Amino acid sequence: MTLPLFAVYGVSGCGRGVMPLARAQLLRQGIAATQLVFVDDQPKAPMVNGQRVLRYAEFLQAQAGARHAVLAIANSVVREKLAARCAADGVQPWTVAAANVVTMDEVTLGEGAVLSPFVTLTSNIRVGRHFHANLYSYVEHDCVIGDFVTFAPGVQCNGNIVIEDHAYIGTGAVIKQGKPGQPLVIGRGAVVGMGAVVTRDVPPGVTVVGNPAKPFLKG
User: Fold this and answer.
1) Same fold, 5-94 and 97-208
2) How many whole angstroms separate alpha carbon 147 and alpha carbon 15?
3) Residue 27: which residues within 8 A CB-CB, separation 6 or more?
4) Site (Increases basicity of active site His): which residue positions (predicted)?
5) Nearest of 15, 30, 121, 24 to residue 74 by alpha carbon
6) Is 210 helix (H, G, I), strand (E, B) or coil?
7) Is beta strand 5-9 parallel, antiparallel or unpaired with respect to 138-139?
8) What is the distance between the alpha carbons of residues 39 and 8, in angstroms, rounded to a whole number?
9) CA 34, CA 136: separation in Å to the nearest integer?
10) Is CATH 1.10.10.10 what the domain over 5-94 is classified as, yes or no?
11) For residue range 70-96, what is the model confidence (pLDDT) as tens digits?
12) Across the chain, what does the average pLDDT equal?
């Protein structure tokens, strides 16, 4: 029987942070680390942190019963393009989660997520495709997270919040709890700056910073 092959797509800092989680997850499933590789479109070395690095074409050509990839790419637009490429080539999306991630009741998690150490997803949450939740981030009750959303470390996403596709929430940002039936909304492609405290809706495509968070105006 030909064994499956697993990949962390991207060998940058994001990918190197995901690789140990992926390796440990496979080992818990009884799958050897030899079935795990980095994939990168422009590799600079054949090995990184003890794992082989393959070009995407090499990954597709390698002998495998099935191919799985987690997209360790911080840029959500690039992540979406790579997700489409992988789907077209029969590469299955792969979710990687640290062993200490806490997931409570009625959590729906879309395909291809990355959940870093100390992430918590509480109850009655719906999360879209290819979500990145970095170290110590949390999502509280009754939240809806779109596709290709990125949380930097330490994001505090409190209850009754809607975060639309491709939003980026910066390190240490705090999003105030919304109300049942009247959630606080972070619009599609919005950016919440590092340490921002969001107390009201953020329109699509707008960058907000500060406490309370306000639109960032370039000087």
Assistant:
1) no
2) 19
3) 33
4) 142
5) 15
6) coil
7) unpaired
8) 6
9) 29
10) no
11) 999 999 999 999 999 999 999 999 999
12) 97
Residues sharing a CB contact under 8 Å with residue 122, sequence separation 6 or more, in sequence order: 104, 107, 138, 139, 140, 141
Distance of alpha carbon 74 from alpha carbon 10, whole angstroms: 9
Catalytic residue numbers, as ranges: 141
Residue type, 103: T
Q: What is the mean pLDDT of each run of 10 residues along the chain (219 residues)?
A: 93 96 97 97 94 97 96 97 98 98 98 98 98 98 98 98 98 98 98 98 98 88
Q: Which residues contact 33 (CB under 8 A, 6 or more apart)?
A: 23, 26, 27, 50, 51
User: How many beta carbons lie within 10 A of that of residue 27, not counting itself?
Assistant: 12
| CATH T-level topology, domain 97-208 | UDP N-Acetylglucosamine Acyltransferase; domain 1 (2.160.10)
Query: What is the domain partition of the chain in residue ranges?
Result: 5-94, 97-208
DSSP code string of 108-123: EE-TT-EE-TT-EE-S
